[in-house]
């Protein structure tokens, strides 16, 4: 874990695997991936701004990605959060491992019960079909 509380890539993968196992009862795991930009305290902004993709093309830089995982608990004492930063040159290897962990974890989660709508209409028989 670094000074900002981020895990190494391998630690992150093992922790989200454990998070999926723990969350089998409630079935809630939030995953997020986005481009990582450092905050510039002098200019009081992220440089370049998140979502401003014209900067990527103009300066020719490649940016790392930040991956986050959370159990989504509203109670701060029960909330579990993990994050890691993946450099662009390591992304392909990380992505393969990440997708395997997520695919394995999602199958163990409980599906959300959908509410049944009131006054469900019956399907009308097709016209021109006779028995």
Briefly say what this structure is.
The chain is of the alpha+beta class.
Structure in words:
This protein is of the alpha+beta class and 131 residues long. It has three helices and five strands, in the order αβββαββα. The model is unreliable at 49-58 (pLDDT under 50). The N and C termini lie far apart (70 Å). Helix 1 (9-22) packs parallel to helix 3. The strands form two sheets. The protein has a three-stranded antiparallel sheet, with helices on one face. A two-stranded antiparallel ribbon has the order 2-3. A hairpin with a 4-residue loop joins strand 2 and strand 3. Helix content is 27%, strand content 17%.
Broad structural category: alpha+beta
User: Approximately how much beta-strand content do the residues carry?
Assistant: 15-25%
Poorly predicted ranges? 49-58
- Give the proportion of residues in helices: 25-40%
**Quaternary:** single chain
Radius of gyration: 22 Å
DSSP summary, beta strand count: 5
Largest sheet: 3 strands, antiparallel
* Order of secondary-structure elements: HEEEHEEH
Alpha-carbon distance between the two ends: 70 Å
Mean pLDDT across all amino acids: 77
Morphology: elongated
Q: Strands of the largest sheet, in order across it?
A: 1-4-5
User: What is the count of helical runs?
Assistant: 3
């Amino acid at each position: 874990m670094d000074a900002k509380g981020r895990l190494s890539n391998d630690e992150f993968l093992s922790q989200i695997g454990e998070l999926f196992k723990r969350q089998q009862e409630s079935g809630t795991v939030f995953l997020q991936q986005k481009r990582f930009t450092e905050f510039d305290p002098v200019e009081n902004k992220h440089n370049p701004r998140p979502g401003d993709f014209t900067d990527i093309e103009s300066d020719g830089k490649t940016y790392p990605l930040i991956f986050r995982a959370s159990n989504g608990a509203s109670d701060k004492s029960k909330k579990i959060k993990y994050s890691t930063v993946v450099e662009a040159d390591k992304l392909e290897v990380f992505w393969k491992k990440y997708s395997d962990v997520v695919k394995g974890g999602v199958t163990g989660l409980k599906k959300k019960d959908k509410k049944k709508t009131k006054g469900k209409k019956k399907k009308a028989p097709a016209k021109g079909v006779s028995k």
